[in-house]
Specification:
single chain, 382 residues, alpha+beta, 3-stranded mixed sheet
Length: 382
């Protein structure tokens, strides 16, 4: 409830209306909620929103590669009478979450440079459509919906605190790109899926509706719900990719990806001239290329070329590789990389989630497997 109070208190407008609100009303509301904001957020100001985007607080270092969605994603206590299982199964005994229905999300539609105001649930629908194939298992789609909702709840809360501290109002909350989470409007979806739009939309809308209001929390705070497409067999500790440890982003086995994901193993080829240029290394005769460290998630921790060392993340990003686990082979003037997995590897594997759903696991079980020590809770109860 404290989260929602802060959002409403910052003068957010209804859909289609101006973002400016009554300044006096905003400051009164902010003053009342400041202590709650600090208590809720201070321990968790350690990441973007993970999905991990560049627009989060500057102090957050886990912000430069989409975690919660990855740029390489596949397309991130309840009342006694209401358990997570009730909500995830779409139980008719679960009442709708009316408290967040009047909170809107301002999405920058980057291709058109306009801001689209949508409800949180409409935003989540558009993100699930943009980040996960609609033909994935229903429980995998539900897990994705909860992760996407967790990201925007965290992001709106962070935005409210940051803007209040700096005395400014942003023109939008999130972009529709991997800088935040890929979002596709319903109109665009219907144009994009002309043949089977109705069936796909129904699958996504069902996943969103049956998880309405649910988010992933750690110590009653929204987590950085990082996700990615395909693991190499394990997920990655957050500090091994972003340099900052988060207790719920721990390495866990994800053995299913190898057998189910079309992106598990890929080959990237480039000239040696391009290889050295991308790394900013001056080529010398007899220069050695070697791995000098591995992470707990079996990815490359340190990659050394001559006397220059790079982290696995730096190597992946500089060379444009799908994953930071790779082997290579050098010919006369070319280098061939074989990569394993697709994405940064932190948080929930989408193909792993789909495999778990096929095994009969629920969305709650999937999320609690990939995010260590978390709970699934109603945002309105926080």
């Amino acid at each position: 409830m404290a989260l929602l109070s802060r959002w409403r208190g910052r003068g957010r407008r209804q859909v289609g209306k101006s973002r400016s609100g009554n300044a006096l009303l905003w400051w009164v509301s902010f003053g009342c909620g400041a202590l709650l904001t600090i208590g809720l957020l201070l321990p968790g100001l350690v990441s973007r929103g993970g999905s991990v985007g560049k627009g989060a607080l500057a102090a957050q270092t886990v912000v430069s590669d989409q975690a919660v969605p990855d740029r390489t994603s596949e397309n991130s206590s309840l009342a006694a009478s209401e358990s997570p299982t009730d909500r995830l199964s779409g139980s008719s005994e679960t009442k709708p979450v009316s408290q967040i229905d009047d909170v809107t999300v301002a999405v920058l539609v980057s291709g058109e440079q306009r801001v689209e105001d949508v409800s949180i649930e409409a935003y989540v629908r558009g993100v699930v459509a943009g980040e996960m194939p609609a033909d994935f298992e229903p429980e995998a789609l539900k897990a994705q919906a909860i992760a996407a909702r967790t990201y925007i709840v965290r992001r709106l809360s962070l935005n409210a605190s940051s803007n209040a501290e700096e005395g400014k109002t942003s023109r939008y909350d999130v972009t529709d790109t991997t800088e935040d989470q890929v979002y596709i409007s319903k109109d665009r979806l219907e144009r994009q899926w002309p043949a089977d739009a109705q069936a796909k939309l129904e699958a996504i809308e069902r996943a969103v509706e049956e998880t309405k209001g649910l988010i992933v929390t750690f110590n009653r705070q929204p987590i950085q719900a990082a996700f990615f497409s395909t693991s190499n067999g394990y997920t990655e500790n957050s500090e091994d990719y972003w340099g900052q440890p988060l207790p719920y982003l721990r390495s866990v086995p994800s053995p299913w990806d190898k057998n189910v994901s079309p992106r598990y193993k890929q080959t990237v080829e480039m000239s040696l001239k391009e290889f050295y240029a991308k790394l900013g290394v001056k080529r010398k005769k007899g220069m050695k290329i070697r791995v000098t460290g591995l992470t707990e998630g079996r990815r490359i921790k340190e990659f050394t070329v001559g006397n220059r060392s790079f982290t696995g993340r730096e190597t992946r990003e500089k060379l444009g590789l799908p994953s930071s686990q790779f082997t290579w082979k050098v010919t006369k003037d070319r280098i061939f990389f074989t990569t394993y997995g697709y994405g940064h590897g932190v948080g929930m594997s989408q193909w792993g989630a789909n495999a778990l759903a096929k095994e009969g696991k629920t969305a709650e079980q999937i999320l609690q497997y990939y995010y260590t020590g978390v709970r699934i809770e109603q945002a309105s109860k926080l």
